[in-house]
Amino acid sequence: MFVFQVALLSPVRSSAIVRPRVGFLGQLCSSPSETTDLELDPVEDLELDPVEGPVDALENSIGFTMQQRGGMEMNEIINIGFLALVSLATLAKLTMVDQDMMRGWTTAEMAYRLPIDNWTDYYQVLTDSPIQTKAVTSATVYTIGDIIAQRTEGSSMGELDRMRTLRSMLAGLIGHGPLSHYWYEFNEGIFNNVLHWTAWWSFFPKIIVDQTTWGPVWNNTYIILLGLMKQTSFGTIWEDIKRTTIPLVVSGLKLWPLAHCVTYGLIPVENRVLWVDLIEILWVTILATQAAGKGAAAETSNSSTEE
């Protein structure tokens, strides 16, 4: 403190003054005498990058959202339009089956005759071309099942994955329909013509054989078909097969033994593919609902844990 007071009170010689180095801004703010020798380089063609402010960021965000929403709306229009077109074509086909003789029919007569005559026409086509008919049947049912599954998973009409639906349709067309035809014919021939098990109880061993052979074979075939259509590597497909074989068999035991009591006990062999396909729509919907419920429960658990 003493030294500091002495320094303040003692006279300061001009020769002892040390001028600090003045930067560029200091030179500009100094007196004209001190800036006589200052030379400034002219700035030519100076380009400044625009700085994005909060308003610009908000406008960009809104523009991106509107663009994304426009894409979603276009997808929704395409999906709804396609489904409406197919539904109208199918409805027209079903209602025009008796167009040559239904003039003057009452509503009650049409409601009675149309289902019977449509089934008669389907059975005739099934008899003439069994494999092709079952392939188209499976393709139709697998398409409907995949759309229901995606909707159950929470996807809107604009978010439907059309490529996924196409892959599912092709799996039913080239896989499930033809292979199921040969499987049910083979199964019926073994039990009726080789083992001669034709009593009422014969559907029990048929169910056991189905669940232990055909069920796993088709599940893995389905995974292989989807993997090939998605151009997945064979190593990944093999890992998927190993990971899903046992869980799919266990899950199938919750529904298929009961459903196959009807399949092998009541349904004629030529109509079994149609019956199984209809049950698969329900099965796919149930699985998708359970998956969506587990996903929501996991998100709720994670959010509560974070809180």
Percent of sequence in beta strands = under 5%
N-to-C CA distance:
57 Å
| Fraction of helical residues | over 70%
Number of helices: 10
* Record field, number of beta strands: 0
For the report, how would you describe the main beta sheet? Answer: none
Average pLDDT number: 76
Using only C-alpha atoms, the radius of gyration works out to: 38 Å
Rough shape? flat
SS class:
mainly alpha
Regions with little confidence, pLDDT below 50 for 5+ residues: 1-38, 303-307
The run of helices and strands is: HHHHHHHHHH
Give me the secondary-structure topology.
Elements: H1 2-9, H2 24-29, H3 54-95, H4 107-128, H5 130-152, H6 162-194, H7 203-229, H8 234-252, H9 256-265, H10 272-306
Helix pairs in contact: 4-5, 5-6, 5-10, 6-7, 7-8, 7-9, 9-10
How is this structure best described in words?
The chain is mostly helical and about 300 residues long. The chain has a domain at about 105-290. It is built from ten helices and no strands. The protein has helices spanning about 1-10, 25-30, 55-95, 105-130, 130-150, 160-195, 205-230, 235-250, 255-265, 270-305. Helix 5 (about 130-150) packs parallel to helix 10 (about 270-305) and helix 6 (about 160-195) runs antiparallel to helix 7 (about 205-230).
What are the salient characteristics of this protein?
single chain, 307 residues, disordered C terminus, mainly alpha, 10 helices
In short:
The protein has 307 residues and is mostly helical.
